[in-house]
Amino acid sequence: MPANDFLSASMRTLPLVAILRGLSPAEAPAIGEALDTAGFAMLEVPLNSPQPLDSIALLAARHPAKLVGAGTVLAAAQVREVHAAGGRLVVAPNFDAAVVREAVRLDMVCLPGILTPTEAFGALAAGAHGLKLFPAEMGSPAVVKALLAVLPAGTPLLPVGGVSVANIADWRAAGAAGCGIGSALYKPGKSAAAVQQDARAFAAAWHGTQAA
Questions:
Q1: Active site includes 187?
Q2: Which run of H or E residues covers position 197?
Q3: Confidence class of residue 208 from pLDDT cuts 50, 70 and 90?
Q4: Whole-number pLDDT of residue 209
Q5: Chain centroid to CA 170: how far?
Q6: Which one, of 141, 153, 142, lies nearest residue 179 by Cα?
Q7: What is the mean pLDDT of residues 186-209?
Q8: What are the start-end ranges of the E strands in 93-198?
């Protein structure tokens, strides 16, 4: 499936990215199943996790219909490694044109990190499929609204950092297309049952804001 279509399908299912920083390959199968049961369609294993490519390979093989890939991707060579492991998603804390272009070349979904309009337009010009507003704690839902007023219509903007069940409605109301959820969803050693419970809470909170 082409990258744009894969992203669109995943966003329609549930536009929340599970950021699994610190996930180990031993934990990956159980955590992947927990998130699958809760309805998550996008799974990100940051590359500063232990043996991240192994976890990505496991998750991608077990959940081929899900958009699985890596976060904290800082170089084009890392994009190629994620692709070789079966990942289709590239997320970064920053905007690096070489990373975006390599992901696009390999038909991978790319969500670079941006905080300013200059970074946002540069990332889109390089071919980014959507934008990660990071760190969202430095901004506010008002920043999302302001950025979306000038970005091309339909640009997916996903705040990451500090998103919680309590405030996700505010981000959604400002126009965020989705959100990335990190430590509020998963921390190393957290049980699969607890991850599933929190994942369900985030999904319910997002759907609740959609229905409002």
A1: no
A2: helix 192-211
A3: confident
A4: 45
A5: 18
A6: 141
A7: 94
A8: 109-111, 113-114, 131-133, 157-159, 179-181
Helix or strand (DSSP H, E) at 53: helix 52-62
- Give the active site residue among 27, 44, 66, 102: 44
Helical H segments across 85-178, by residue range: 97-105, 117-126, 141-150, 168-174
DSSP state of 137: G
Residue 212 has pLDDT above 80, yes or no: no
CA torsion, points 129, 65, 83, 131, in degrees to nearest 10?
20
Known catalytic membership, residue 27: no
How far is Cα 34 from Cα 112, in angstroms, rounded to an integer?
26
Average pLDDT of the segment spanning 69-91: 98
Q: Tens digits of per-residue pLDDT, 56-76?
A: 999 999 999 999 999 999 999
Of the candidates 33, 119, 132, 145, the residue annotated as catalytic is: 132
Amino acid letter for position 133: L
From CA 201, how far away is CA 204, in angstroms rounded? 5
Quick one: 17 exposed, middle or buried, by C-beta within 10 A (0-12, 13-18, 19+)? buried
